[in-house]
Amino acid sequence: MTIQISSAPCCWGVDDVRNPHLPPWDRVLEEASTAGYKGIELGPYGYLPLDIETVSAELQKNALSVVAGTIFDDLIDPTNLDNLLRQTHEICALLTQLPKLSQAPGQHFPAPYLVLIDHVHEERSLFAGHPEEAPRLSRERWSQTMAHIRAIAELARDRYGIRAVVHPHAGGYIEFADETLRLLEDIPYDVAGLCLDTGHLYYSKMDPVEWIREHADRIDYLHFKDIEPAVYSRVMADKVDFFDACAQGVMCPIGRGVLDYEAIYRLLGEVDYQGYITVEQERDPRHADGSLQDVTASLEFLRSKGFS
């Protein structure tokens, strides 16, 4: 396997650019580099500047490459499509100006990717991780969402040559097994790939090993997380809002939670996964002082299990 391990701003609590407690973006890049990472995601739209000269200077200073940009926004509302397409243009325009990343033999599509995530909706967030109780979209609203994903992915592909990947996410309307399988039926692989996240799979009652094995041919990119079992049991029992659960520490450094990364490593060898994996650990940004220690521990653990 040729695998590159990267990091992401959400490890510093960066999920909502309107949050007044976010750490400075240049600090995030500096600490990711200090921890030993060679790659970083842009984070949510508007966190890192989209000015190529400004971003390039900081990336070069910290010996980092950008492996993905993210649209973490409302993919459902038809009035939001213009905003989504604007984000697509601006993110992809930046990505295409950055140095090209190497593509390993057998890697489905080259990075950087455009990761599409339906944001956490208030009416779904309390039911994150509860597939039997969470409200679902109507057929009409689901079809509209799929049309939005196709429009974004086709724009990224045809205008910029950037591969879009859809990330099922706790608290969004593409979260659970039935929704992810429906997504795979409705979005052809030539339009968009899949970004599976081990932590979100587990959080939402899906076995990461099983899902990676069954859908390896659709997976272009992976996110790694770990789940702290005692916190997870409590927030499931109490139906805690997803981001409140993150603030309580439901996501922990890799190797300290319930996920079996030895089994995941063996599986990725079996399915011949090649390319990029990004470590994530959502938290409250007011706890970002612990981020450097945690992202360092995650990388050291993965390296001890054979990941490069």
TrEMBL record:
PANTHER family noted in UniProt: HYDROXYPYRUVATE ISOMERASE, INOSOSE DEHYDRATASE
Protein name per UniProt: Xylose isomerase-like TIM barrel domain-containing protein
Superkingdom: Bacteria
Xylose isomerase-like TIM barrel domain: residues covered: 29-304
Pfam families: AP_endonuc_2
Matching Gene3D superfamilies: Divalent-metal-dependent TIM barrel enzymes
InterPro entries attached to this UniProt entry: IolE/XylAMocC-like (IPR050312), Xyl_isomerase-like_sf (IPR036237), Xyl_isomerase-like_TIM-brl (IPR013022)
